[in-house]
Give the backbone structure.
Amino acid sequence: EPFYSKVKIADSNINSREINGFKTELRKNLTSTTSVFAEYEFNSVKQSLSSNYDSNSFRGGLDYAWKDRFTFSFSGGKQKKQYEGQSNLNGFVITTSGEYKLSKSLGISAEFNKSLEDDEGQRNAFLNASKRNEFKVFLEYRFLNKGRINLSWLSTRKKLTRVSREDNSDVFSISGVYFPSKKISFIFNTSYSQNEFITGFQSRDDEIIQGSSEINYHPYDWFSTGIRYLRNDRNSNISRDKYIVNRYTFQVTLTF
């Protein structure tokens, strides 16, 4: 497995988050190709633009792998979010995903999620609870020992359960990571999205172009530092929802 395969490409989200938590998993191999698992995860989330919360989630499922070419996973579980000064929200999620390697360099994957969740952009999470269907197609090309490029399409259909509103979005993105050496990495992420918010009063249509790039120096497995630039440009038929954000971030990561 290439050393860069586990490098995470940050999304272009302007809502900064601080997440502290842990996850534990129990796994049982049924055969050489099939296993079942159960996991528990806790996270404490602090956000810049919306409410802070603690989440507890329980999930179980089945994984299948065939000849290092095809993988399939099915899981389901329950999540509870405890908001500061708000009602708690109990939700569920079902996830089905699969991946097929066309060659050593090229792979394609798809994922479907069905969930009951809240809109974190709103203060009252309970009133904005929603039924959500999400489908994603993902294409990845790997450069031998140098990096990877990812192309993806994400389609989301969300219906709020307590108010008359539907949120629909389609996001097309390209991202990648390149290593000129094992100690230096360049990462980029750019996307174009079309969002539609349908209500009984006034509908809103947004077009969003987001992009970020960063350079990182990681001399050790446990230490890395870097600089990141992010731009978010949103155009909307509602004038107050138009904005442009430019952000520079200096980051230091310690891994233990």
Remarks:
- The two ends are 21 Å apart (CA to CA).
- The chain has no helices and 13 strands.
- Confidence is low (pLDDT under 50) at residues 119-126.
